[in-house]
Design a protein that fits this description.
Largest sheet: 7 strands, mixed
Bound molecules: coenzyme A
Radius of gyration: 15 Å
CATH class of the largest domain: Alpha Beta
Strand order of the largest sheet: 1-2-3-4-5-7-6
CATH topology of the largest domain: Aminopeptidase
Helix content: 25-40%
Number of strands: 7
Structural class: alpha+beta
Distance between the termini: 37 Å
Shape: globular
Order of helices and strands: EHHEEEHEHEE
Number of helices: 4
Strand content: 25-35%
Length: 170
């Protein structure tokens, strides 16, 4: 049974994104120190759609080596439950590199809240994600614009999902 821990931290929703349930929220934590935990590795593997240990290891190392990368998520007690990895090359612009919610916690709104909180924490005004068809529907439900981006080598269609704050929407 997943319980939503209370938190006194204020939610910082990204401007212009979809609805946020204020009052019941998870506390966003830096997951880099937890990168050796099996659950973090499982989540990165789920995000990649492949659980190759060497690839997961390489991806996680990038969050240590590359200052513009961020790896944050939600913990259920001491157990990582959801994870988002971002590349933030310019101040208020970022792209989603990894995103996954543990199977038993999907459909509860954690993925939505994770994107909202991460975008808010880093002050992003533009966020993009290159994903497959199922993930594109998730991003579309959050208010991202979805564009076809061709077909990958594995034959699966790819989509570019973009959310952008225009003007003074902040
Ligand atoms: C995609 C993923 C992160 C969504 O997380 P989640 O916590 O289950 O999503 P939420 O409960 O916050 O759902 C938010 C909205 O997205 C929709 N949604 C979520 N997954 C969806 C899917 N696969 N297809 C269509 N819609 C989906 C939900 O219906 C919900 O819409 P609503 O609010 O209009 O009802 C999660 O399913 C996952 O970890 N998938 C495996 C890894 C993956 O594909 N990662 C993305 C590639 S980077």
């Amino acid at each position: 049974m997943i319980e939503r821990p209370g938190s006194t931290d204020a939610v910082v929703p990204a401007p212009g994104l979809a609805r946020l349930e204020v009052g019941q929220h998870w506390h966003l934590v830096d997951l880099v120190p937890f990168r050796f935990q099996p659950r973090v590795r499982e989540l990165v593997g789920a995000s990649l759609g492949i659980s190759a240990e060497a690839l997961v290891e390489r991806e996680l190392n990038e969050y240590v080596m590359e200052p513009r990368r961020r790896l944050v998520g939600f913990m259920d007690d001491h157990d990582p439950l959801a994870l988002i990895g971002l590349d933030c090359p310019q101040g208020d612009r970022g792209s989603v590199l990894h995103l996954a919610v543990a199977p038993q916690a999907r459909g509860l709104g954690l993925g939505r809240q994770l994107v909202l909180q991460a975008a808010g924490r880093y002050g992003l005004r533009r966020l993009s994600a290159a994903v497959d068809a199922p993930a594109s529907m998730f991003f579309q439900s959050l208010g991202f614009a979805v564009h076809c981006a061709g077909t990958a080598l594995d034959g699966r269609d790819r989509f570019e999902c973009i959310w952008e704050v225009s003007g003074d929407a902040r």
